[in-house]
Specification:
Elements: H1 8-31, E1 38-42, E2 48-53, H2 56-59, H3 66-78, E3 87-92, H4 96-105, E4 109-114, E5 139-141, H5 146-162
Parallel strand pairs: 3-4, 4-5
Antiparallel strand pairs: 1-2, 1-3
Length: 163
């Protein structure tokens, strides 16, 4: 049964479960010295078809955000750039670049953990997915495992400042 046919309580429980995998990926990014952000793309059946974590430092690539890497992997898996039947699950609210990438791929749902008061582009600072000037309008749901996601980032930056 596709996620869209499940009840909202079931969807939320599934998103919390997926967020644990995204958090695992985020911790992996932190181990490599990158900001600990992890992302997954799941298809309409709920199968994980894309994974990514920040690799900006490791790859010396300013565009190697977790969301972009997960969407690239999902598109490769599906054989199409169109991710309209997919859900992006990410530990931090997407930035403007990643929110734009979500629109460009027509991702159906954006689910995230912690809100980003500096660069959040899915409802906090900006709301790019709900801008009336864009055609694709993904469903956006924030705050999934918010405390765990925020704590991971806080710990990373506190440790970075101590170095």
């Amino acid at each position: 049964m596709s996620l869209e046919h499940r009840g909202i309580a079931t969807q939320r429980a599934y998103w919390r479960e997926c967020m644990q995998e995204a958090l695992r990926l985020a911790r992996e990014a932190g181990e490599y010295g990158d900001i600990p952000i992890g992302a997954l793309v799941v298809d309409e059946s709920g199968a994980i078809i894309g994974r990514g974590y920040n690799e900006r430092e490791a790859a010396t690539d300013p565009l190697a955000h977790a969301e972009v890497l997960a969407m690239r992997q999902a598109a490769e898996h599906l054989g199409t750039w169109n991710l309209s039947d997919c859900t992006l699950i990410v530990t931090l609210e997407p930035c403007p670049m990643c929110a734009g990438a979500c629109l460009q791929t027509h991702v159906g749902n954006i689910v995230f953990g912690a809100w980003d008061a500096k660069l959040g582009a899915c409802g906090s600072v900006w709301d790019i997915p709900r801008d009336p000037h864009v055609g694709s309008k993904p469903y956006v749901y924030g705050g999934v495992e918010e405390q765990q996601c925020a704590q991971l980032l806080s710990n990373f930056f506190a440790h970075s400042r101590q170095r």
